[in-house]
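Students often ask what a holo structure prediction actually looks like on paper. The answer is less mysterious than it sounds. You provide the chain, you provide the ligand, and the output is a string of discrete structure tokens encoding the 3D arrangement of the protein together with manganese (II) ion.
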Amino acid sequence: MAEIDFHIVKRSLTGWQDECGDTGVVVVSDNQCFLALLDVLGHGREAHEVALVAENYLLKNYSFKVTEIMSGLHERLKGTRGAVAALCSINIDNGELYYSGIGNINTRVHGYQTLQLMPQDGIIGYMINSPKERQFKLCYGDTLILTSDGVKEHINFADYPELLKGSAKTIANNMIDLFGKGNDDSSCIVLRYGI
Ligand SMILES: [Mn+2]
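The corresponding structure tokens follow.
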């Protein structure tokens, strides 16, 4: 089985962890790794409460197909202010990745190939089209990076040759330190595959 290294960083605008509307979940079970980054609309304590509801839902339902999880999350968050999220389920043995994303969470893969997984429009809990799944295969050495919109979107990684080196923890912290916008909660999940 391939080795993986992952890390979640979330930083609230106010500095208080219980006022962060961004949240991340990573669950490793057998040969599956589920990861999700979610940003509740707005920020502050109310957004945090919704983030906790979403987090609980994801922790209970991580083993389903990503499209099913997205639909279920939409039902669960109805009546709240809504959220955007990217969900990935990875087969650790062969690198197969299944992705479903709604709204502006940025999902990138760097390494053998460089690409961005494009989300669908919508607000989870309010209005979404039927969730679609995209399949991708991670190669040994690839780095998967998810960021919320509290982190700059357009980053020329060639300008930061050191950025993708080091552990998932180092990369995730650097993403927030270097590119956090400072006007919203910010969060990042980094997963290094086959290290
Ligand atoms: Mn945000």
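The CA atoms of residues 150 and 186 lie 4 Å apart.
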